[in-house]
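Troubleshooting log. The previous structure file for this entry was overwritten by mistake, so regenerating from the original sequence record. Sequence copied from the archived sheet and checked twice against the printout by T.R.
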Amino acid sequence: MSSPLSARVGRIISGGLNALIDAVEGMAPEAMMEQAIREVDAAVDEVRSELGRTVAAKHLANTRLMEENRRHEDLAEKIEIAVGSGRDDLAETAIAQQIDIEAQIPVLEQAIAQNAERERELEGYVRALLAKRREMQTELAQFRASRAKAETAGAGGAAPGAGTGSGVDAKVRGAETAFDRVLQRTTGLPGRCGSRDLGDGAKLAELEALARDNRVKERLAAVKAKTRDDGAR
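Regenerated output below.
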């Protein structure tokens, strides 16, 4: 992956729309958020283009490798025929070609391995960018819903505590419902937020920590088992 594109993807993944809103300080934040999502779309297209080139290069190297292997086998048969016919000169020529082929095969194998690794890397970038786009869409929808709720409250008169800390949970649920509607209308995809409360985030974080601890313990157990096996041998 080219260095500028890699840096661009890294900047997009590490950034966020909330930080963007803070940066523009109220200067058409919704337009800036929409522009950020368009930038993600452009990055996805760019990564997919490079992914296509990488897949093509891997296929070309693989095809060339198979051809060289077939040539090597064909030359081996011809060498035997030449030797059997007493034509050492022809056999030497074929052997020289085999040596040239043998020098190329490791290079082709390395090219295939490198392109396969790059293919996996680029596929990972595409998945990460699409996940980031979904996150940005969620934040944009929540921002719109929050702003609409504030405008409605300001126009119609909010109940005591509305729009303040005491009504945060209801506000989040309203934003998520609005996001579901926006997502379904603009993409045709069903909403994924559903009905949640503010405790869900903490629970998910706790679940992630628990899963990570479990992975650490599994790896430690594997290392200990390997050490015991090595000691037994």
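Residues 3-197 form a domain with the Helix Hairpins fold (CATH 1.10.287). Archived copy saved in two places this time.
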